[in-house]
Amino acid sequence: MTGPAWRRYLRFWRADLRADVDDELAFHLESRVQEYIAAGMSPDAARREALARFGDVERVRTTVEVIDREHQADQRKAHMWDDFTQDMRYAMRALRRTPAFTAVAVLTLALGIGANTAIFSVVNGVLLRPLPYREPDRLVRLFTAYRGHGIDRYSVSQPEFMDYKSLTQVFENAAAFTGAGLTLTGTGEPERVRGIAATRDLLSVLQVAPLRGRNFEGDDGRGGVAPVVIVSYDFWQNRFGGDPSLLGRQLTLNGVSRRVIGILPPGVTLERAEAIIPMYINPDSMASRASNFLSVLARLQPGATVATAQRELDALTKRLAQQYVRVYPASMGYAATVVPMRDEIVGDVRPAISSRMGTTVAA
Predict the structure, then answer these.
(1) Are 194 and 271 in contact (CB under 8 A)?
(2) Are residues 112 and 138 in the same domain?
(3) pLDDT bracket for residue 146 (50, 70, 90)
């Protein structure tokens, strides 16, 4: 059992509180399931017992989100107060040397320009700037749901991923990924490297081509095939100074020698990962339907909508619930949820930012 896949959702400009809370809850639920399985319970019985003992998931999620948001608010207030005191010291020194009008003008401009710059920087980064992918509005996240227990966004098992990916009438392609803590050795002191393991179609779904080298292909990630890795642009620059010879070199990650086959373009990252290793899902030897640990990203077919995809997923999961009734008892409310990738990144911050922007402009 591995730790929670921190920051499982795609992040580019800010932390995603809801995603982090959901990941943590999913991790603890899955840990409890594995404990019960180790104690001799069947996977479906273990999951039902874990969900029952965990209690009101929605209440726990709401409580944790409130605590974290209050903590973030306190941090923002502290930073604002530090900035304000620094501005005041500057203004007071200027006041001793220049007329009062100049001091007031400088202070007013500093505060006004600073506030507007901060607000518009956030608005541009979170709401206005397009995602660094082609046709980002076609990118969606897929989740397993247990609506009978109040859970709408849960990790996906390998069989569920293959089921969801099979809806080719609405999904052009889909990829799965999960967190992978990595340690780089052989280049000096051991270093922690933020990593993920992903199926070979990930960059194809994002429609991203490596800046250098190639994407995963063929049997990459399968047992017996030479291990490989794709690294981020920042990792290449910060750890290796942009050395072009990194492509094709061997890096030792978690004791495994992996050949660098690709370097991502600047600004492209997934889970802020510095290294992506391939994950091969063999349809003939997949993990149990009760083993949920994957995040799923999909690209809608041209002309398909989120609503259409949701209807197709509803029909599919209804059939699966009937087919695998021992894994998905009726009380569990097994389903699936589709969410636009943009909404998953922005979350419920949009109304607050838009309101702040209007207030600042009016002032």
Answers:
(1) yes
(2) no
(3) very high
Q: Report pLDDT for 14.
A: 47
**Is the Cβ–Cβ distance between 157 and 295 less than 8 Å?**
no
- The pTM (predicted TM-score) of the whole model is 0.63
Provide long-range contacts, Cβ within 8 A and 24+ apart, for 16-22.
Answer: 16/344, 16/345, 16/347, 17/65, 17/68, 17/69, 17/72, 17/347, 18/65, 18/347, 18/348, 19/344, 19/347, 20/68, 21/61, 21/64, 21/65, 21/68, 22/61, 22/153, 22/154
Residue 186 shares a structural domain with residue 295: yes
Note whether residue 229 is domain-resident. yes
User: Which token pair is 169?
Assistant: 């009438």
Q: Are residues 233 and 187 in the same domain?
A: yes
Distances (CA, A) of 254 to 71, 170, 183, 193, 199: 35, 38, 5, 10, 19
Contact 327, 287 (CB under 8 A): no
Across the range 119-128, mean pLDDT stands at 46
Express each pLDDT in 251-298 by its tens digit. 999 999 999 999 999 988 888 899 999 999 988 888 889 899 999 999
Identify the CA nearest to 237 among candidates 196, 265, 270: 265
Taking the C-alpha atoms of residue 317 and residue 325, their distance in angstroms, rounded to an integer, is: 11
**pLDDT average, residue stretch 349-353:** 50
On whether both 105 and 140 belong to a single domain, the answer is no
pLDDT in tens, 172-182: 999 999 999 89
Q: Based on the domain organization, do 197 and 124 belong to the same domain?
A: no
104/152 same-domain check: no
In a domain, 336, yes or no: yes
Residue with the two structure tokens 């949820």: 337
Q: Residue 37: which domain range?
A: 17-132+348-362
| Cα(310)–Cα(328) distance, integer angstroms | 19
Instruction: Give the span between the Cα atoms of 168 and 183, in whole angstroms.
Output: 37
Phi and psi, residue 257, nearest 5°: -80, 120
Please indicate, yes or no, whether residues 257 and 338 belong to a single structural domain of this protein.
Answer: yes
Q: How many CB atoms lie within 10 A of CB 228?
A: 21
Question: The tokens of 256 are what?
Answer: 């495994």
Please state, in angstroms and rounded to a whole number, the distance separating the CA atoms of residues 165 and 171.
Answer: 7
Count of structural domains within the chain = 2
